[in-house]
Amino acid sequence: MSQQSPQQPSTGIRVNKFLSEAGYCSRREADKYVDLGIITINGEKVVMGMKVQPGDEVRVSGKLIGTKAAPVYIALNKPQGITCTTDQHIDGNIIDFVNYPERIFPIGRLDKPSEGLILLTNDGDIVNKILRAGNNHEKEYVVTVDQYITRDFIFDMGNGVPILETVTNKCKVTQTGPKSFEIILTQGLNRQIRRMCEHFGFRVRKLKRMRIMNLTVDNLATGSWRHLTKDEMSGLNNLIATSKKTVAPPSSTADKEQLKFERTRQPRGQRQPKTEKYAYTPPAKK
């Protein structure tokens, strides 16, 4: 086993990343454990900046931590009423709903009244490559609203809508019925489609995500999940091969909104439950 000190150069990985990839805890939680002085590498108490080398013995409160967990990639057809949070104090959270035996977390969000495709993983490196708007990865939705759709509405929805103190990127919008349309986004602003519709006086009755990049909800029943296939992972990896995990400091309100979301995507136990208000009108009772 190698020996190291905080002053020695290291080509290993940071302790917080090691613990996250091992499935033990989030990076944020690992930083707290470092501050508490309960992590050791080869018997030496870890301080911020120390790295783990191959063969090192890493312990938390004396417990030996294993190597990196095998990557898990799951597609879920989320039903309405499930909240995309890892906080298991919140009723109807997505972690309890999937009930996977290992630690996983959702890639992005679908708000509580929405349904459709969402991915879950234990691979933190893939998350921002998929989510960041600058990587221009497509997400496709079908939407039903409360009024008859006009040609002007379809045109205006696709050509930038002022919400959240910014203007949305241009996108492809296609009418599919008197009160329904498909929309393909490369952004992920807070309740973006609902806010876009409300800007024009429309209320969303139903919203379902059908596709994320090369992955679809086809042949996956509502409420069901499955592991991604090798072919799906191959296609996904090809699409994100040149995607960036980080971006320059946010310069626009849209960038700041995305950054705010990423910073609040915290693991279990980091946040207290809170009451959320959704831009949502429930279906009329029959």
Structure report:
This protein is an alpha+beta fold and 286 residues long. The chain is 24% helix and 23% strand. The chain has eight helices and 17 strands. The protein has helices at residues 15-21, 27-36, 94-98, 124-131, 151-158, 192-199, 230-239, 253-264; strands spanning 13-14, 39-41, 44-45, 51-52, 58-60, 63-64, 73-78, 105-107, 115-121, 139-145, 162-163, 166-167, 172-177, 180-185, 204-212, 215-216, 225-227. Helix 1 crosses helix 2. It starts with 12 loop residues before the first strand and ends in a 22-residue tail after the last helix. The model is unreliable at 1-10, 248-255 and 261-282 (pLDDT under 50).
- Structural class, from helix and strand content? alpha+beta
Shape: elongated
Please identify which CATH superfamily of the largest domain we are dealing with.
Pseudouridine synthase
Q: How many independent structural domains? A: 2
Mean pLDDT: 84
In the CATH classification, which architecture of the largest domain applies? 2-Layer Sandwich
What's the CATH class label of the largest domain?
A: Alpha Beta
Radius of gyration: 21 Å
Question: Can you summarize the main beta sheet?
Answer: 9 strands, mixed
Order of helices and strands: EHHEEEEEEHEEHEHEEEEHEEEHH
Instruction: Determine the fraction of residues in helical runs and give it as a percent range.
Output: 10-25%
Beta-strand proportion: 15-25%
